[in-house]
Design a protein that fits this description.
By secondary structure, the chain is mainly α. The chain has helices at 2-8, 23-32, 42-51, 56-59, 81-86, 88-107, 109-119, 125-140, 143-148, 155-168, 177-180. The chain folds into two domains: 2-68, no CATH class; 81-192, no CATH class.
Length: 199
């Protein structure tokens, strides 16, 4: 999406030297000064820098797409159409369980960390708890989420986001929001009221 970002912000792409690399090389190359910037997922890169004994807030400048005209949605829960059609109850159960876990972890990050350690006892609990809290602070809790509940979208915003992605990747067509998002499996709004309390 760099071309869309550049066009939206009047940047001259001819003055930007691009280089492709494995994601695990991005932060080390920035730290060494081999590259000036990287296109990253902030939730990954921020904590890669922490693990490399950097101060991500002091040592680096962060540019969020949303702050520069690209009002995009980020990650979501994805299932195949085949599963949706063959076993919609399983999909509804997955969404319900994910929603419930998200609400519970928003209230008690230590419980979330305890569950994560049961799955992988080699994780750095202090860093992963910070990552979890970062995700709520920077990516999940927002005025829109408070308005429509966790897990939902606004169709007009999704349509604009699809348009940007379609333009950026030069797709042959722009799918309708209903082709990429379904409310059919969402729990009722009252069950999607996320209350985040950092602990």
């Amino acid at each position: 999406l760099l071309p869309v970002f550049a066009a939206t912000n009047s940047l001259d792409m001819s003055k930007i030297k691009l280089s492709s690399m494995a994601p695990n090389l991005q932060e080390p190359m920035m730290i060494k000064g081999d590259i000036d910037a990287a296109l990253v997922f902030n939730i990954t890169s921020y904590f890669n820098l922490v693990l490399n004994r950097q101060d991500p807030d002091k040592d680096f400048r962060w540019f969020a797409f949303g702050d520069f005209g690209l009002d995009l949605y980020s990650n979501g829960l994805i299932v195949s159409r085949k599963l949706m059609e063959a076993n919609p109850k399983a999909v509804a159960g997955l969404v319900r369980a994910t929603n419930r876990a998200m609400l519970e972890v928003a209230r008690d990050q230590n419980a979330g960390m305890a569950a994560a350690v049961k799955f992988d006892n080699l994780i750095n609990v202090a860093v992963e708890k910070r990552r979890l809290q970062f995700s709520f602070d920077k990516l999940i809790v927002s005025p829109e989420m408070r308005e429509i509940g966790v897990g939902d979208i606004k169709d007009d915003r999704m349509a604009r986001a699809i348009g940007m992605v379609a333009d950026g990747y030069q797709l042959a067509r722009k799918p309708a929001p209903s082709e990429v998002f379904s409310r059919a499996f969402l729990p009722p709004r009252a069950e999607r009221e996320l209350v985040y309390v950092a602990d």
